[in-house]
Design goal:
Helix content is 44%, strand content 28%. The strands form 2 sheets. A 4-stranded mixed beta sheet has the order 1-2-5-6. Strand 1, helix 1 and strand 2 form a beta-alpha-beta unit.
Length: 116
């Protein structure tokens, strides 16, 4: 069994990651954290970030890194030892997230870590 949470790096999604990590800790299941790079250009901190560009990828990786740390802290509070996986996906978020659940056909950067 896996527990999946998507994050965009916002304060609300940070709360979602905390809640998901808490639930996954109680259930003793793997926590999957995903972030989706959207197929449109965005203005971030006054800079244009192009889809699939290096800036977008680095921003997505920073978002996942922050979410992973939030999850680790929550898991430690529960004195649990569960696996945390992160995936950087691309595409229209609902479709990309759904496809990631179907298997390895989705292009992604995946990292696995155990929380100890």
């Amino acid at each position: 069994m896996r527990y999946l949470v998507a994050t965009d790096g916002s304060a609300v999604s940070e709360l979602a990651v905390e809640h998901a990590a808490s639930d996954a800790s109680v259930w003793g299941t793997t926590l999957e954290i995903v972030h989706v790079l959207t197929p449109k250009a965005e203005l971030v901190d006054g800079e244009l970030v192009l889809p699939g560009g290096e800036k977008a990828i680095k921003r997505g990786e920073r978002t996942l890194s922050g979410a992973r740390e939030t999850a680790r802290e929550t898991i430690r509070e529960h004195d649990a030892d569960i696996e945390i996986n992160t995936q950087l996906l691309s595409g229209y978020p609902p479709n990309a997230i759904t496809e990631s659940l179907r298997g390895p056909r989705t292009r992604s950067r995946k990292r696995r870590q155990n929380c100890r």
